[in-house]
């Protein structure tokens, strides 16, 4: 594994969090049927640099409008939170899956790494789950922390599709991590160093802005440390940094404690 690949892997794991960068259309009661209806929304999305959270709650989005919005999202790789509850009011149930498929394809194409996906209050039924099944199985959801599906009427059938999709997502993400860590060119110390720098736990001459919230990275590390592919020689080093006084760590006491408990057992 090349040094740039190691850096990218460390950066990806570190950045499982969201700061600002929110664009909100919440509660505007927009009726977006056609591409023309959605042109203002699309322009705002396109013009928003560093888009990390998109709120579409309280509007109604049709198949054609979803398709063009998805096209705009294809260039928004930093998007991490999709607040998309209650956005199909008045739509036929048959319209919702294709709309969700388009939006999901936009996120996948963008290379987004979601931490939150809220599709609550959309009443799409069992068939609606098929609309975001591919998204859940993709790398866009390898970093997903929160999936909200309240009041969607999925039933047993939808629940089965959901369970299979999440299981596949977990399998794929673990397989990717195992491949990376098992590579003969993988440099464990370089990986840990880059990760700690991004987390703000290790100083560096590089101008890298440390992330503000370490909860996500700590929970991701807690999972990785328990896997057979994780280099056990890194555990004492990681433990040393986790036990040092640090305000960023202290603000994520639960995640830090969970990781420490795991490290003590390694």
TrEMBL record:
Signal peptide: none
InterPro entries: Leu-rich_rpt, Ran_GTPase_activating_1_C, RanGap, RanGAP1_C_sf
One MF term in the entry's GO annotations: GTPase activator activity
GO process terms (BP): nucleocytoplasmic transport; signal transduction
Key words, A-Z: Leucine-rich repeat, Repeat
Keyword Amino-acid biosynthesis appears in the UniProt entry: no
Domain Ran-GTPase activating protein 1 C-terminal residues, every copy: 173-263
One Pfam family it belongs to: LRR_6
One GO term describing the cellular component: cytosol
PANTHER family in alphabetical order: RAN GTPASE-ACTIVATING PROTEIN 1
Listed name of the protein: Ran GTPase activating protein 1
